[in-house]
């Protein structure tokens, strides 16, 4: 469980939120968040689920069961939602643009390795 408090603190800092911000969102005290982040206490299951939802990660990631952290920003989530609304032609266009940009990124990385 020692990875839990490290991940919790890291996610909070990455999100730019204070302990008080998180406490307010979970309707608990700031000191409770401080205890979670130092390993002095652990949240109940309900709070754990709320933390995972707040940080857009899985409970498994928070607990250290998984190292896969597919955190998506609000913008990324919105893009996914909009993509799902597209018809097949629209999805094909988006996929084509992404593939071209991905190929260009790989070319650019190759150029940097060659000159670096």
The number of strands is 0
State the end-to-end distance: 41 Å
Uncertain runs: none
Please give the CATH architecture of the largest domain.
Answer: Orthogonal Bundle
- Mean pLDDT level: 90
User: What string, H for helix and E for strand, traces the elements in order?
Assistant: HHHHHHH
Structural class: mainly alpha
Share in β-strands:
under 5%
What would a concise description of this structure say?
By secondary structure, the chain is mostly helical. The protein folds into 2 domains: 2-63, Orthogonal Bundle (434 Repressor (Amino-terminal Domain)), CATH 1.10.260.40; 74-115.
Reconstruct the topology from this structure.
Elements: H1 2-15, H2 19-26, H3 30-38, H4 45-54, H5 59-63, H6 74-85, H7 88-115
